[in-house]
Amino acid sequence: xxxxxxxxxxxxxxxxxxxxxxxxxxxxxxxxxxxxxxxxxxxxxxxxxxxxxxxxxxxxxxxxxxxxxxxxxxxxxxxxxxxxxxxxxxxxxxxxxxxxxxxxxxxxxxxxxxxxxxxxxxxxxxxxxxxxxxxxxxxxxxxxxxxxxxx
Length: 151
Prior knowledge:
By secondary structure, this protein is of the alpha/beta class. It has a domain at 60-145: Nucleotidyltransferase, domain 5 (2-Layer Sandwich), CATH 3.30.420. It is 32% helix and 15% strand. Strands 3-2-1-4-5 form a 5-stranded mixed β-sheet, with helices on one face. The longest helix is centred in the first third of the chain and has 17 residues, at 20-36. It is elongated and about 105 Å long. The termini are far apart. The relative contact order is 0.14.
């Protein structure tokens, strides 16, 4: 009978996970990362930089794109509504009607006004690109984008 009693106690299943090998592997990985991290040099990103323009524009014409994608052409003395198809012609008319102011060295200026596109942040990028395309097709040379610097 004693043999029968020991027979029931045979091998028991282990319901615990042995964590020692897992901890050993994690410590080795931690040491590897701690040793190699200072050796990795941070990558440098070459960002474009802007410089000062050689000559400030005689006149700035502002094309304002509103939240509802309406366009306005603004000069220092007046603001006129415009459509996408007419914005290029409106800017060209304003540029041609502007008097050619003399440059700083006394030579006559060409009356080439800079055009700045100001758009609301909720306006689709596609709309701004369409305005730039219409201005380019109309022959406007100097086009820029208005930005607001973060505080």
